[in-house]
Each structure stands twice: as C-alpha cells, then as structure tokens.
Write a structure and sequence with these properties.
single chain, 101 residues, mainly beta, SH3 type barrels, 1 helix, 7 strands
Length: 101
C-alpha cells in the first residue's frame, strides 16, 4: 500500500468500501485522514477499478466525510486501489498541507 488517494475494500459480513487519503504511520499501520468516505453501489455493475478511475458517478452513493482518522492495518485490507485525484476532487478533496513522500 502506498500513500495517496485510495479506494480501500475492507473484509467482513458487510464488506466496507472507503475512499480517502491514506498515510502510512509505521510498519503495516496506516491511517485514512479526515474526509474519507464510505462508498456503496446503488445500481449497475461497475468494477472497483472503474470506480477508482472515474470517481463516484450516478451509480454509487457516498457517506458523509469522516471527521477523524480511521486507523487501518495493511493485513486487514482486501484491496487497495489508487484513485484518480481529478475524478474524486469534489467528493474527496486533497487534505490541506498534503505532501507526497
């Protein structure tokens, strides 16, 4: 996993998909920064790859932006896809002061 805007698929009975700015903390520990959002499919059959590349079109819904950090361990992530910054700019803007490493 790498720092940046990512679509992350987490395991579980209700498999959660989140989009947000991911930052490595240490080792296998990462944090989704404030502003990350839950994403769900409302219609259609677009793949996660297309969601990451094209952003949230009319076939996906978005939860409210998070107010705090969301701690994530690398070994508990099923998929982590780089998301297109321009396609997601309105829904998940770059955090102030973001510096790519």
């Amino acid at each position: 996993m790498r720092d940046g805007l990512r679509v992350i698929k987490l395991p579980g009975y209700y498999g959660l998909t989140r989009v947000g700015w991911l930052r490595r903390v240490h080792g296998d520990e990462y944090v989704l920064l404030p502003g990350a959002r839950t994403v769900w499919r409302e219609s259609g059959s677009r793949l996660l790859e297309d969601l990451a590349d094209d952003g949230p079109l009319k076939d996906h819904g978005l939860g409210k932006p998070s107010k705090g950090n969301d701690e994530i361990h690398r070994l508990l992530v099923w998929r982590c896809l780089p998301a297109d910054v321009a396609a997601w700019a309105k829904a998940c803007p770059m955090p102030k002061g973001w510096v790519a490493e």
